[in-house]
């Protein structure tokens, strides 16, 4: 679907202006690969990816050049997932929860209120839970790098009211990413979730197709969602991260030493990005308050209880299976 709103026009002109596409340099790289994502240029993910691409070029003696297409320039997450599978793009970072439309177990880290803090997140994602998920991604035919990039703990913003208790979510029109787990989570609260790709979120909020959304503060800030939202409720209701996915054919086409340089630098960039995002998220509340967002910090106990009562955890335990659930609970403690 082509929609010529402000954002896609900006995206289209940026694609046309991208140097490698129009010019034919005398010493073209042997492998010119595209990395696409859904986040604004200013987000640490794109900042660190740019550094990694420069190092990859240097360490491969110019053989591997990675062009970065941020901000949904090449389409929505749904589009880009098709593109990385077909080889139209070579690399793509995607939330595990959205990847779950292809690899169902990949959403498990997004279960409501599973992780108490970042220590538990990295223990799980750099440990057995991450390994379990990556094995499933591999079986689906995609390449995945070892280190997941941080998106963050997610918070709810609205244009209408603060969310102070689970009752405030009843009937609430909220945008969620395209992902069965996300829809299920907000349905369990009795909300009215609508699946919308991130490429359409700003305009969906602006035109009041939905009254709210949920994202980490780093995204609320870099995507300027505060321009179209009034309240921010610090629910920390789930942790979300981005897997660096690769097209398998393009990956195996790279010589071994180039693969190593690419993997090493993508993984190092992910680790650096985690620190950036944690720092950003910790400092952004004051800045977003200045932009006009009103904050509140609800107690999370009643939200967890509401999920338990709705049978949310029991239902997802059955879907993921006992083995995966046991691996998750190693890092989170008992959830059911
Ligand atoms: O779509 C979203 O909300 C985002 C940007 O956080 C994800 O990629 C999951």
Describe this entry's structure for a reader.
This protein has 336 residues and is of the alpha/beta class. Helix content is 47%, strand content 17%. It has helices at residues 6-17, 19-22, 44-59, 77-86, 96-99, 118-125, 128-139, 180-188, 201-206, 217-222, 248-253, 256-290, 301-309, 312-320, 322-332, and strands at residues 31-36, 64-69, 91-95, 142-144, 149-153, 155-158, 173-176, 192-195, 212-215, 231-233, 239-247, 294-296. The longest helix is centred in the last third of the chain and has 35 residues, at 256-290. Mean pLDDT is 93; it is low at 1-15. The structure holds (2S)-2-hydroxy-2-methyl-3-oxobutanoic acid. The site of (2S)-2-hydroxy-2-methyl-3-oxobutanoic acid (X2X) has 9 residues, from loops.
- Ranges where pLDDT stays below 50 over 5 or more residues in a row are 1-15
Ligand names:
(2S)-2-hydroxy-2-methyl-3-oxobutanoic acid
Percent strand equals: 15-25%
Query: How many strand elements?
Result: 12
How many DSSP H or I helices? Answer: 15
Estimate the helix proportion, in percent. 40-55%
Main sheet makeup: 6 strands, mixed
Shape category: globular
- The overall pLDDT, averaged over residues, is 93
Q: Which structural class best describes the helix and strand composition?
A: alpha/beta
Terminal Cα separation, in Å? 41 Å
Radius of gyration: 20 Å
């Amino acid at each position: 679907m082509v929609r010529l709103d402000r954002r896609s026009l900006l995206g289209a002109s940026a694609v046309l202006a991208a140097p490698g596409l129009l010019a034919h340099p005398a010493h073209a790289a042997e492998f010119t690969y595209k990395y696409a994502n859904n986040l604004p240029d200013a987000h640490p993910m794109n900042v660190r990816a740019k550094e990694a691409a420069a190092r990859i070029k240097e360490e491969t003696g110019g053989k591997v050049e990675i062009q970065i297409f941020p901000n949904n320039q090449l389409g929505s997450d749904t589009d880009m997932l098709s593109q990385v599978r077909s080889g139209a793009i070579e690399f793509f970072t995607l939330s595990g929860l959205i990847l779950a439309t292809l690899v169902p177990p990949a959403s498990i880290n997004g279960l409501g209120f599973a992780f108490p803090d970042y220590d538990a997140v990295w223990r799980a994602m750099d440990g057995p839970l991450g390994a379990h998920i990556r094995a499933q991604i591999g079986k689906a035919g995609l390449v995945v790098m070892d280190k997941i990039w941080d998106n963050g703990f997610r918070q709810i913003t609205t244009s209408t009211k603060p969310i102070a208790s689970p009752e405030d979510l009843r009937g609430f029109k909220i945008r969620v990413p395209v992902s069965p787990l996300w829809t299920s989570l907000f349905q369990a609260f009795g909300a009215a979730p609508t699946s919308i790709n991130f490429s359409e979120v700003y305009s969906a909020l602006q035109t009041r197709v939905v009254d709210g959304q949920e994202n980490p503060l780093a995204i609320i800030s870099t995507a300027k969602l505060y321009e179209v939202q009034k309240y921010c409720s610090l629910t920390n209701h789930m942790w979300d991260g981005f897997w660096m996915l690769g097209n398998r054919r393009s990956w195996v086409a790279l010589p071994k030493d180039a693969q190593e340089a690419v993997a090493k630098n993508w993984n190092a960039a992910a680790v650096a990005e985690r620190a950036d995002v944690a720092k950003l998220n910790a400092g952004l509340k004051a800045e977003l308050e200045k932009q006009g967002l009103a904050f509140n910090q609800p107690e999370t106990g009643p939200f967890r209880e509401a999920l338990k009562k709705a049978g949310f955890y029991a239902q997802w335990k059955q879907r993921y299976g006992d083995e995966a659930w046991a691996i998750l609970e190693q890092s989170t403690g008992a959830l059911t």
